[in-house]
Design brief:
Number of helices: 11
Strand order of the largest sheet: 2-3-1-4
Structural class: alpha+beta
Oligomer: single chain
Strand content: 5-15%
Radius of gyration: 32 Å
Low-confidence stretches: 1-10, 256-261
Largest sheet: 4 strands, antiparallel
Shape: rod-shaped
Order of helices and strands: HHHEHEHEHEHHHHH
Number of domains: 2
Length: about 300
């Protein structure tokens, strides 16, 4: 009985019934769930793209046409190019691709055994570029040893990955902005509904000398509590989905789901607790602005 009396005294405007603890937290939880997914998409895409850019940009693929043709050093074009690669600063781990691997790559177009065809199949060497800038001089040097030798770097693919990442991050940012605007609209509508339900009580309290700031503070405190609870629940509900998405993305990221952070990147763990804080700011600020504007028009 004493506890109930204390609650009534603390809730002089009757906001527990005007701003019920059912609909608004559920809606905020749904918005927080979507925001957690969009945030994970933004961070995960950025991390994956950074790794892919580093891996792709450093990759070299060298194609040597007519590899068995003799060169000036009593060898052939293939051995001359491979020797030059192994002695070139900035070129690391040059590895010739086997004929079986080349046949597998060409099989969709030339059949299961491309070697049976009367076609000149170039030799392929893969390597890593660790030198400064782009390997333009390397291509010129190899072409002098074996005319027609092509050097393809992953820089073009890295640029495409960067463009794709930027577009995905823009989409995720747009989702976050939409979620933010919807959350503001929901809190504003819930506050207006509470004001309409408690209009007579507010007019009486306001007429007795209550300041606009006092009334706005009561509504803001209630809205903040409900939005924080809803955001916390929504963020927790998003964790199983995030774990599942992390497990699916693990092969592309080069780590196992049992890695550090339980499969989630550490920046995401640091960002998820921010969602309830953002929800608290939205609830408090939106309720303050809505109530003060409503009281100003009432006056």
């Amino acid at each position: 009985m004493v506890e109930r009396t204390r609650r009534r005294a603390a809730d002089q405007l009757g906001l527990r019934s005007a701003l019920a603890d059912r609909l608004l937290p559920v809606l905020v939880a749904a918005m927080s769930f979507l925001a957690a997914l969009a945030l994970a998409g933004t961070i995960g895409t950025a991390l994956l793209a950074a790794q892919w850019r580093d891996d792709t940009a450093s990759t070299l693929t060298i194609q040597v046409p007519d590899p068995d043709a003799p060169d000036a050093q009593d060898g052939n074009h293939f051995s001359a190019v491979l020797t030059a690669l192994r002695s070139t600063p900035g070129v690391e781990n040059p590895q010739p691709m086997s004929r079986a691997a080349i046949d597998r790559l060409l099989s969709p177009w030339l059949g299961a055994d491309a070697g049976d065809l009367a076609l000149p199949i170039p030799a392929v060497i893969s390597a890593e570029w660790a030198g400064p800038g782009r390997p333009d001089t390397l291509a010129q040097r190899l072409d002098a040893l074996a005319p027609g030798t092509l050097v393809a770097s992953g820089a073009a693919w890295a640029n495409r990955v960067a463009a794709l990442t930027a577009s995905l991050q823009a989409c995720a940012a747009a989702v976050l902005v939409i979620v933010l605007l919807v959350a503001v609209a929901m809190v504003s509508l819930a506050t207006r509904s509470g004001l309409a339900q408690r209009r007579e009580t507010i007019e009486i309290v306001h007429g007795l000398g209550a300041q606009d700031g006092d009334i706005a503070r009561e509504f803001a405190a209630r809205a903040t509590l409900l939005t924080v609870v809803g955001a916390g629940v929504g963020t927790l509900l998003a964790l199983p989905v995030l774990f599942w998405l992390a497990a699916m993305a693990a092969p592309f990221a080069g780590f196992t789901p049992s890695a550090g952070g339980f499969g989630l990147p550490l920046p995401l763990w640091a960002a998820l607790p921010i969602l309830p804080l953002v929800a608290a700011v939205i609830g408090w600020a939106t309720a303050q602005v809505t109530v003060r504007g409503w009281l100003r028009r009432m006056s």
